[in-house]
Design a protein that fits this description.
The structure is a homodimer.
Chain A (H helix, E strand, L loop, with lengths): L4 E7 L3 E8 L5 E8 L3 E7 L3 E9 L4 E6 L2 E3 L7 H13 L1 E13 L8 E12 L11 E6 L3 H5 L5 H11 L4
Parallel strand pairs in A: 4-9
Antiparallel strand pairs in A: 1-2, 2-3, 4-5, 4-7, 5-6, 5-10, 8-9
Chain lengths: 171, 171
């Protein structure tokens, strides 16, 4: 649906736009939208372990949050899969021979266009990669038979969706 | 973690703040955070149906998205449960005699503080309530034995988490 008018009211790492719409029934609504690069997240598994990360999350004032390795598609021209491969190397130090796209979701479609695509990465091997200096990441290896226990501790939506999808009966 | 300095760079329905942090290891990082009211979402069930909604989502340019009834905690002093009760009445026209808090998640903790608390509402009955004039909502009654089929169509993170939690083996 095309807005009647649209104005960018903030430009930074995210942009904020205010747009006016008219529905078919004549109803007028105004929406404030936070525009953001899309993102990817990876369920990385070998025969023994699921690879998660712990990192500080200043946005939600948490000293550390347990999450899937993930990242923003901020490299021009990069595909979702290429971004996932780069982030797996940067955050976990691994490459994967088997990649599978699982699903995608909008993280909060009431106010932002952010979309996250989830991948499963298997058949892992070590790889050298530079870490992102803006991040402070600890790798957490979770034995596969303990994944069910840690799911209750996950409070990051993309990570919870990935783990419920792969490790529940709907996987 | 307290920022060294913090500046509000945009004020609207959401606020945007830029803050500077120094980690224990001396590393300096800057974060842009979108501050937003928290939200609630409801898995509303009777003996036969799950109650979902379809609504236009201009932020993600979708003419309609299938979601759990949900809303923002924008009434001062309102608790999560009170907000869920209000939204269930406004969006579905129901009240529930049985409420259960399931879990909460951060929708995208890399850039926003938004937190969504999920409730299960059962033992439903009709109630009169005014609709929000800024919303255009269709109620969708999904027979309980068809919920599994529609989970694949859900692309809203809070809705997918709620349905996977209640209708999968981890429920």
């Amino acid at each position: 649906m095309k807005p009647q008018s649209s104005q960018t009211v903030y430009q930074g790492r995210v942009n904020v736009e205010i747009s006016d719409y008219i529905y078919e029934n004549g109803q007028k609504v105004q929406r404030e939208v936070v525009r953001k690069d899309d993102a990817v997240a990876i369920i990385a598994l070998d025969q023994e372990y699921l690879y998660l990360i712990r990192q500080p999350r200043e946005a939600v004032d948490e000293p550390e949050l347990l999450e899937l390795p993930a990242g923003t598609m901020d490299v021009p021209g990069e595909s979702e899969l290429e971004c996932a491969q780069r982030e797996l190397a940067e955050e976990i130090g691994k490459k994967a021979n088997h990649w599978e796209e699982l699903l995608w979701v909008y993280t909060s479609p009431g106010f932002t266009n952010e979309k996250v695509t989830l991948f499963k990465a298997m058949d892992l091997s070590d790889v050298d990669a530079e870490q992102d200096l803006e991040e402070k990441i600890d790798i957490v290896k979770v034995p596969l038979d303990e994944v069910e226990e840690i799911i209750d501790d996950i409070v990051d939506s993309k990570s919870l969706i990935g783990l419920l999808t792969v490790f529940s009966s709907y996987g």
